[in-house]
Amino acid sequence: MTTALDHDLHLYIPDLGRFRSTKDLESSSLYQELKPRIEALLNSYELYNVIDHPALKPFYRAVAWNVERGIHLEGINHILRTHPILKEADVLLVTETDIGMARSGNRNVAREMADALGMNYFFAPSYLNLAKGCGVEHEFEGENSLGIHGNAILSRYPIEDPEIEVLKNAHDKMRGREKRLGSQRALIASICFPQKKVKAVCAHLDARSTQSHRALQMRCILDTLQKYRGGSTLIGGDWNTSTYDSSRAFWAIFGFWVRVAMGTGNMIRNHYPHPYRRFEKGLFNSIEKYDFDYKNANQTGEGTLHYSVEDMAQFKNLREWIPHWCFRFVEWALRPHGGECNFKLDWFATRGLKVVRDQEIPSSPNGPSVSPRVMRHLRHQDKKVSDHDAIVLDFEL
């Protein structure tokens, strides 16, 4: 595998990984020596325009999907090539894509997706990983070749004007088992449709964060987008609107008991799938303040991540920062609800675009238009291909 992001920093990863905090790391002579190379890597990107698809369409289709590192890449590509709705995507906003990570077979996930789907792509790294990942990801064979993780925009149309918006970390990424250098980044680029350019934004907000920090990260993106106020913009991705303060185990546990007191069934019906009503209200208020529309751009009330007490992968991932004893109480709280609950984490927001709905445009090269929706039960060979559902949006220019 060759990539524009090739580096030899992996030679120093064992030594970098010995530091237990970002403060200690950054004060070390080793980091100071490597800092220019680390920053150059994290500020680089891949942009490949090899497909020119000038076809004019009455509407276009966007898909946002957290593909869980690209661990099940063959299944993801199969679904995106064959699913009757997803195969017609013109733009893909893809969160959690690896380059050279053992958990995803040391592949360039964004490039392989683009090649398989006949699309152009823009990838930017968020992190240089100093470990194999978290939870079950440590169980994958082999070692990381490059250790890069980030997000990508794929398009059937040319991609121009790439930008990277660096988002402030919510917690110290050198603490814990999954040690990383860097921070979340939002990708911003122009998609050159035949009618006009549209700004596409792929945003992945921090999971281990407070509600207010997620709102702050979104406002940073929205502030940057103000310079494009007169044009059309599409934001999509995994905003991690879990309703929880997950910055520390204490606050997550405290928040859990607050939600139990409010009624687990009440949370499952009225808050987890509707985070804008109360717990994540600041983030969604900011979106509307900047004249973006999320209410008409999503299937509200439908979760995109499904927690189950029987899912061992979820259990092992959470166990890295949540004490083991807590899970007995989670099982107890969810027992009347089949041991499951659904969270709405993945979203679109639009400005200057007209969202179209089921059969509003009955005929096009994409087939008939569909309303914004969550694509549930995406499986290949009877296995889940990601822990998130994809979301779909059709729009007119």
Question: Could you list some keywords that capture this structure?
Answer:
single chain, 397 residues, alpha+beta, Deoxyribonuclease I, Chain A, nine-stranded mixed β-sheet, five-stranded mixed β-sheet, 18 strands, globular
Layout: helices, strands, pairs:
Elements: H1 13-16, H2 22-26, H3 29-42, E1 46-48, E2 60-69, H4 73-82, E3 91-99, H5 109-117, E4 120-129, E5 148-155, E6 159-166, E7 180-182, E8 185-192, E9 197-204, H6 211-225, E10 232-238, H7 249-262, H8 264-270, H9 281-289, E11 305-308, H10 312-318, H11 326-334, E12 340-343, E13 346-351, E14 354-355, E15 373-375, E16 379-380, E17 383-384, E18 390-396
Parallel strand pairs: 2-3, 9-10
Antiparallel strand pairs: 1-4, 2-18, 3-5, 4-5, 4-7, 6-8, 8-9, 10-13, 11-12, 14-18, 15-18, 16-17
Work out the helicity level. Answer: 25-40%
- The coarse silhouette is globular
Name given to the CATH architecture: 4-Layer Sandwich
Q: How many structural domains does the protein architecture include?
A: 1
pLDDT averaged residue by residue? 96
**Helix and strand string, N-terminal first?**
HHHEEHEHEEEEEEHEHHHEHHEEEEEEE
- How many helical elements? 11
| CATH domain class name | Alpha Beta
Low-confidence stretches: none
Distance between the termini: 38 Å
Q: How is the CATH topology named?
A: Deoxyribonuclease I, Chain A
Rg value:
20 Å
Strand-pairing-aware structural class: alpha+beta
Strand residue percentage: 25-35%
Major beta sheet summary: 9 strands, mixed
Number of strands: 18
